[in-house]
Fold these 4 entries.
Entry 1:
Amino acid sequence: MSTRRIFFSRLALDARIGILEHERRAMQPLHVDAEIDLSIPGPVDDHDIHSVLDYRHLREAIVQECTQAHVNLIETLCEQVAARLLADFADIQAVRLRISKPMAFSDCAAVGVEVHICR
């Protein structure tokens, strides 16, 4: 079976995440990196977006899942986003998802969590 990978590099958004009191009061920036492996059901028709998985829909699902409600732990959010992608898009075979908080510590560029989930 042939596969194709769609990736997002450092998708930036603001989310309500964190268990600490100051995190509960304000949104904070997140960066999302994702690698999404798809089965390729047929040839690509260069004139028909429906012959591929439109990555705009993947981005929309990631953003919506990250911003719809407060989540205490980044581990929970990572698993929720991966589960949503697998539930919503049947062609996805595997998701590698990294969500990081670039403002968590002043002495590093970011801290985060990565999951890799296969069907």
Entry 2:
Amino acid sequence: MIVFDLTCGLGHTFEGWFQSMEVFEAQLAQDMIACPHCGSMQIRRVPSAIRFSRKDSGADAGHAAVRGAAGTPLSGSVTVTPETMMSLFRQMVSSIIANTEDVGSAFAEEARRIHYLEAPERPIRGEASLEEYENLQDEGIEVMLLPLLKKEKAH
């Protein structure tokens, strides 16, 4: 598995996970990669903060970026194993849960209230349909799709 730092034509940055460089290039050529923030198909790779290498592959197996607190790059090299990836995923989920307010099914409504300054600005999480998500994006409200995050499943 390779994780690339990507950016769209509008400068939004995000990660993309691919089986190989060839799969990434094929998906890019077929316009199968879109910016999760704006839907742009003008995607390009940007330099990553650190390299990951896999024990079972040859030299220069893959590259990925991991950012520490406040966007600071982590230094060093990490061996990518399923256990390492699961550990990183659990850390991310735990951090999201610890640093956001769960507004449940009222997510779309509360995101609008925050955007239009009708409620205090704060990080929130909750549930929204794909249609609600797309409507929020159409209104210029920055939201991100994530799997359902439940505290009991973070560990």
Entry 3:
Amino acid sequence: MQRIYEPESLLEAQMLMGMLDSEGVTVHLVGRDLIGAMGDLPMQGLLGLAVADDQADYARQLIAAYNAAQPLVGDEPESVPGTLIC
């Protein structure tokens, strides 16, 4: 197993896990149980996505594509151009 990404929040982790799972990548969320102790632990580095060694490069490519995605023209609200509101 390789830790390939540190999501900023549990929400981001869950979204990425769903995306990776839909692409056939088995992913594990490391540190989910530590979220309740955030007052006592440093916030950075608690969560991590881990995948099998043979899927690590593919998973990194998928996450990089996800993070580089831009909204389609016309999908963003007029009040906040260039931002996709989900």
Entry 4:
Amino acid sequence: MTETQTYDIISATVWAVLLASGPVLGVALAIGLVIAFFQALTQIQEMTLTFVPKIVMIFVTLLAATPFMYATLKNLSDTIFDLVQNGGL
């Protein structure tokens, strides 16, 4: 196995992890910004106001994005296992 093949595998792995975690991180960022703006406008500094809506939306997003995350990681694992089976590793 050459350095180029190793780099390609690592690159594909990092890309798959970023794609799989992207929806959850994006929703957490968006909800955090909305809550921060709300707190800045109303001057309500309650800790549960930041935690509860964010965690609820993260769980909802996890439920909705699970098929996409599974397909992304399954594609990566199929690629890696095909390389192993064909002697590419």
